[in-house]
Amino acid sequence: MDHGVDGPFNRDQGDGPDQDFTKGPRPAPGPPGAGRPPYPHGHPSGGPTGPFQRPPHAQPPMAPGWQPPRPMPPVPPPHPPPPPLPIPPPAGEPRGILWAFVPFLTFGFGTPFSFLYAALRNKSWNLGATAAGYGAATGMAMLLTQAESALFGALSGIMMLTLWIAGTVHAFAVRPSAFPRGAPHDARNEHAIRLAKYRRTLREQARALAAEDPALAHELRIGRPDLPRGYDDGGLIDVNHAPPATLALLPGADDALVERIVRHRAEHGGFLSAEELAVDLDLPPALLPQLAEYAIFLP
């Protein structure tokens, strides 16, 4: 198709797609407010049309070169709370409550016997004298009941009532000293004691197994905490095969003793028992029981 000068894409008129918009003078901008208003038929809110006006409550325009303020440094974390106070050991359980109720439950007749029991249990002469006094008063009250006089009978009743009430109050008053609280039991300490005894049992079982079947003991790696294993021997250490770092775990073993053990193994072979180890290396006698508890000597 031939596009002439008067064709639809006339370069001189600037209507075609090949027009170069980067060349030629640009039209000068008109005055403010000139051009097509944003709302030809009026503002939707009913206000006047025209250039945008800043509302009176808006902030003024920012000056050139203005920068926002730097962010505040991070707030340091609050001080950590103080560590919790150690849990006080539990108090011992109260004792002697049933003993203190004996005078009340027996209407005063058991008061001498309850105080006599407390005197024998604590080896207390004061409680023994108290038991004798209550016994004499009880015996006198019973003798007065044998009399035919009404006065003696009333006196006997008053004495038994006094023994009943006074004996009960007295028993509760002396109970803390006659039956002191037992020693407090700490669950953590009891668990630690049971664990230590359990590991001692494991060591004894491992020794018996090693004495019965040394090859199986080597396979289970008894006395070798430096190697991966699944058998718990209770903390035994094989003096004849363990490396120096493991030998240092023995009780009382310092660097000098470990070096002497390694040198003796290289020159003379392994040991047969803790006694031989103590004799060959001239160890102090106080160290022998500690070594014998954790040392094992596999061939």
From TrEMBL:
Domain of life: Bacteria
Example GO molecular function: DNA binding
SUPFAM superfamilies: RuvA domain 2-like
Membrane-spanning segments: 97-118, 125-144, 150-173
Biased composition (Pro residues): 26-41, 53-89
Keywords: DNA-binding, Membrane, Transmembrane, Transmembrane helix
Region (Disordered): 1-89
InterPro entries per UniProt: RuvA_2-like
Presence of keyword Cytoplasm: no
Extent of the signal sequence: none
Pfam families: HHH_3
Protein name: DNA uptake protein ComE-like DNA-binding protein
